[in-house]
């Protein structure tokens, strides 16, 4: 019998070892294979919650696994962010956030986060752009019907015009503060509502506030019912559902107002293959016909990121943009 040479024997042993290792290694679990929790940093009813629920329904149709929406409002979105950061980094705890919670909050409160935000949080993909109205109340015979009339009224009634937002430091707050600055340092009173968009809608219906920047999803029903009057729309062009409402650019203030967004985030510690699987599932979800139809009915523009890398670059750009805005417009923020 011929003896195997030392080199050949080593090669056989190596092949056997590799074969045994491959056979013994457990197969990579397919993602997702159980329900995914999605944190929403607001109560039910606002644009972010609506987006999360529409995407969750589509995600289940595409993957066969539920995406369970959990409303976790409070602390400028910090509660929801920290829930994601401290969860097991396996891709089964994610967050649908927006401009306020996932760019402005980290800019304003970096020391309140347990980690460096851009290193600890991963943007998986943008989901939608959300246009917003500049609206006024119809309560108490408030006379304003145009942007120039609002500016004139505020100038003639310093300190008497009340405007709302979903919270101190939120993007609607910054939008109105910047609008006031751009139109002659208008003296207006800010009345935030901790109940979020739904609370702000009730404020303007009662006349507790007289004007606000308000996302289309939150205001649409009352606008269509004639109970809230839209002056302009912050969007790239007029919306087909509101053809008579001019854009902020048409009103002469192209740089005022935020075309908001909703995006999906997870912990940066989630393994990249899992992040990629989540991204792929979301791409299919955003092409699901029922999902597309529901998002478009809200006048949301579907704007997915092209890749995980692009999502990361996009988030970094958003952070720099809001660092500039928050430096230009000084708002008293409780620390």
Structure description:
The chain has a six-stranded mixed beta sheet with strand order 2-1-3-10-4-11. Strands 7-6-8-5-9 form a five-stranded mixed beta sheet. The chain is built from twelve helices and eleven strands. It folds into two domains: 36-129 and 260-328, Bordetella uptake gene, domain 1 (D-Maltodextrin-Binding Protein, domain 2); 132-234, 3-Layer(aba) Sandwich (D-Maltodextrin-Binding Protein, domain 2), CATH 3.40.190.10. The longest helix has 21 residues, at 308-328. With 335 residues, the protein is of the alpha/beta class.
How big is the Rg?
Answer: 24 Å
Major sheet characteristics: 6 strands, mixed
* Arithmetic mean of pLDDT: 90
- How far the N terminus sits from the C terminus, by CA atoms, comes to 83 Å
- Quickly give the CATH architecture of the largest domain: 3-Layer(aba) Sandwich
In which order are the strands of the major sheet placed? 2-1-3-10-4-11
Could you say which overall geometry the principal axes of the C-alpha atoms support?
globular
Quickly count the helices.
12
Low-pLDDT windows of residues: 1-27
Query: What structural class is derived from the secondary structure elements?
Result: alpha/beta
The CATH topology of the largest domain is what? D-Maltodextrin-Binding Protein, domain 2
Strand content: 15-25%
Q: What is the H level of CATH, i.e. the homologous superfamily of the largest domain? A: Bordetella uptake gene, domain 1
Number of domains: 2
């Amino acid at each position: 019998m011929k003896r195997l040479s030392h080199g050949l024997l080593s090669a056989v042993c190596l092949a056997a070892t590799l074969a045994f290792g491959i056979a013994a290694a457990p197969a990579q679990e397919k993602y997702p294979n159980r329900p995914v929790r999605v944190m929403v940093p607001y109560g039910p009813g606002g644009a972010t919650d609506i987006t999360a629920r529409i995407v969750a329904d589509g995600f289940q149709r595409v993957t066969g696994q539920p995406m369970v929406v959990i409303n976790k409002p409070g602390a400028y979105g910090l509660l929801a962010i920290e829930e994601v950061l401290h969860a097991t980094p396996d891709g089964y705890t994610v967050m649908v956030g927006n401009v306020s919670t996932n760019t402005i909050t980290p800019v304003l409160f970096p020391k309140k986060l347990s980690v460096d935000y851009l290193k600890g949080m991963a943007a998986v993909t943008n989901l939608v752009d959300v246009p917003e109205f500049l609206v006024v109340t119809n309560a108490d015979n408030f006379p304003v019907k145009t942007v120039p009339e609002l500016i004139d009224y505020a100038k003639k009634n310093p300190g008497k015009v009340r405007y709302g937002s979903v919270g101190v430091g939120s993007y609607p707050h910054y939008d109105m503060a910047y609008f006031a600055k751009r139109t002659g340092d208008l003296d207006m009173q800010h009345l935030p509502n901790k109940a979020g968009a739904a609370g702000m809608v009730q404020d303007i219906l009662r006349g507790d506030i007289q004007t606000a920047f308000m996302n289309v999803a939150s205001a649409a029903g009352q606008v269509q019912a004639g109970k809230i009057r839209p002056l302009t729309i912050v969007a790239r062009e007029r919306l087909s559902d509101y053809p008579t409402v001019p854009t902020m650019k048409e009103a002469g203030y192209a740089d005022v107002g935020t075309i908001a967004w909703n995006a999906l985030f997870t912990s940066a510690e989630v393994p990249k293959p899992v992040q990629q699987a989540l991204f792929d599932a979301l791409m299919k979800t955003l092409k699901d016909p029922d999902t597309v139809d529901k998002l478009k009915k809200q006048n949301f523009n579907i704007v997915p990121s092209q890749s995980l890398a692009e999502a990361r670059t996009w988030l970094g750009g958003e952070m720099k943009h809001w660092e500039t805005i928050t430096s230009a417009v000084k708002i008293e923020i409780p620390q």
